[in-house]
Amino acid sequence: MELLAEHKSFGGVVRYCRHPSQSCNAPMRFAVYLPPQATAGPVPVLYYLAGLTCTEETFMIKAGAQRYAAEHGILLVAPDTSPRHTGIPGEDDDWDFGSGAGFYLDASAAPWSAHYRMYSYVTDELPALVAEHFPADPVRQSIFGHSMGGHGALVCALKNPGRYRSVSAFAPIGAPMHSPWGEKAFSGYLGADRDAWRAWDASELVRGTQLPTPILIDQGTADQFLETQLKPERFEAACQAAGQALILRRQPGYDHSYYFIASFMEEHMRFHVEHLTA
Ligand SMILES: N[C@@H](CCC(=O)N[C@@H](CSC=O)C(=O)NCC(=O)O)C(=O)O
């Protein structure tokens, strides 16, 4: 693993790292925030999955989470949103598919299946790497994210009940099988069989698996993608039908940006701290 950059922040340190990934068969980058408490021993870990067009830097620069991670002694991990420079033709052509748009799934359709295995990367390879190189307590981990990454966090938690102590999301794609972003991604990464898509759609997964802790979601009412792409009412209805506890808060006037995310970051951090330290 290669250390690319390091910045002191709130008494701890943000590090940017690169390593060869077996899951993605490509170099991958991620960011980690080590709170001051990490110098004394293992601390709980909180993973953040960013949205379309983001990189491993976006969350560390824009979300303002380090202040709260330092206060509560939480190690933050933010991976890049896809493999890059894989050589797959057209990987950089669209902002909502390919590079920067890995959707946190394991692609099954060629040529993407050779590299686009972000689900395995985020749920298995990255936690193992983090446990090896940083003072992380592997038993205490939680996950959250935004938009494509908010949906990715829901999928990671719902596919692994008990693995994450808590899950939350900012403006997640609520049902990608019914959103243009999701339909484009699933067609490309998974192929034409819509039945196969169900295994990667949180609104489908929650029908079969419920989590022991409530899911927290914040959604801005002035979000430019609310009605076309996000459709939180679909995830809400699926949770209700399945008996999954969900705290869905519609926040008046907020859009899809990191101004919205930063506004509710403290509350999401407190939510996760409560479960990580219970
Ligand atoms: N280029 C797009 C907008 C892309 C965008 O808004 N990306 C969001 C995530 S959207 C869902 O996953 C984001 O987080 N962007 C980074 C940021 O710093 O805001 C367009 O032109 O509409």
Structure description:
The chain has 278 residues and is α/β, with parallel strands linked by helices. It has ten helices and nine strands. It has helices at residues 58-62, 66-72, 118-133, 148-159, 180-190, 194-197, 202-208, 226-230, 232-242, 258-276; strands spanning 2-9, 12-21, 26-34, 43-49, 75-79, 136-146, 167-170, 215-220, 246-251. Helix 7 packs parallel to helix 9 (232-242). It is globular. The ligand N[C@@H](CCC(=O)N[C@@H](CSC=O)C(=O)NCC(=O)O)C(=O)O binds next to helix 1.
List keywords for this structure.
single chain; 278 residues; alpha/beta; nine-stranded mixed β-sheet; 9 strands
Indicate the topology.
Layout: E1 2-9, E2 12-21, E3 26-34, E4 43-49, H1 58-62, H2 66-72, E5 75-79, H3 118-133, E6 136-146, H4 148-159, E7 167-170, H5 180-190, H6 194-197, H7 202-208, E8 215-220, H8 226-230, H9 232-242, E9 246-251, H10 258-276
Parallel strand pairs: 4-5, 4-6, 6-7, 7-8, 8-9
Antiparallel strand pairs: 1-2, 2-3, 3-5
Ligand LAXINWYW binds next to α1.
